[in-house]
Amino acid sequence: MNQDFLQTVEALSGEPILLCFHCHKCTAGCPVVEEMDYGPDRILRMVQLGEKEKLLRSRDIWLCAACETCGTRCPNDIDIARVMDALRLEALRSGVTPAEPEAAKFHKLFLFVVQTLGRSHEASLLIAYKLWTLNLLADMDSGLQLFIKGKVPLMPKTIKGRHQVKRIFVKSAEAVAKEQSASGKPAPAQEAK
C-alpha cells in the first residue's frame, strides 16, 4: 500500500478519504459513471490502496463532471469532486499524459475563460474549445437551439471585481512556483496535449 500517495491526495484535496466505507451512494448518483472504468467509489478505494499509477492513467479522473452529486450523497461528507481535482493535478505534476486529452483541454480552457472574464461564459468557452479541438460541427444542432432560445448569451456580462479574480490566479501561480522550488518537483504541464 502506497501511504505517500494517500497522504498526497488527502493533502491536495483536503478530504478525509479514509472515512469512505464504500456505501456506493456516490457511484449510484454519478451522471457519467456509465462512461467511467471505475466510478467514484472505486476511485476512493484505489486511493486508499495507493494504486497511484492506475489512477493517474485513468480516464475517470478526466471524465468527472465535478457536478458535486457524489459529495452531496456521501454520508461522510467527502467532497469527491475535490479528490478528482487532486488526482488530475497529481497526474499533471507527475507528467502523466491525460487519458482523455479533450477533457484536459476543456479544463484548461474553462480556467482561461474565468481568468480572462472573471466568470464562466459558455459561448466563449464553446468557441475556444471548438477551435482548439477542430471539432467544429459536433453538437451544432443542440448548440444552435441553445442560442436561439437565449440560453447561451453571445456576449459575456462584465462583473465587478474582475481584477480580484485575476489576482486569485496570480496568487495561485505564485504558490505553485514556490512549492515547486521548495520541493524540487516538476511543474504541472501547462498545456494539455
Looking at this protein, list some descriptive labels.
59% helix, mainly alpha, disordered C terminus, 11 helices, 0% strand, single chain, Fumarate Reductase Iron-sulfur Protein, Chain B, domain 2
Strand element count: 0
Unreliable segments of 5+ consecutive residues: 189-193
Would you identify the CATH architecture of the largest domain? Answer: Orthogonal Bundle
Helix content: 55-70%
Q: Please tell me the total number of domains.
A: 2
Classification by helices and strands: mainly alpha
**Superfamily at the CATH H level of the largest domain?**
Alpha-helical ferredoxin
Overall radius of gyration:
18 Å
Secondary-structure element series:
HHHHHHHHHHH
CATH fold naming of the largest domain: Fumarate Reductase Iron-sulfur Protein, Chain B, domain 2
Portion of residues in beta strands equals: under 5%
Number of helices: 11
For the largest beta-sheet, the strand count, sense and barrel status come to: none
Q: What is the averaged pLDDT score?
A: 86
Determine the N-to-C terminus distance.
Answer: 31 Å
The global form is: globular
Please identify the top-level CATH class of the largest domain: Mainly Alpha
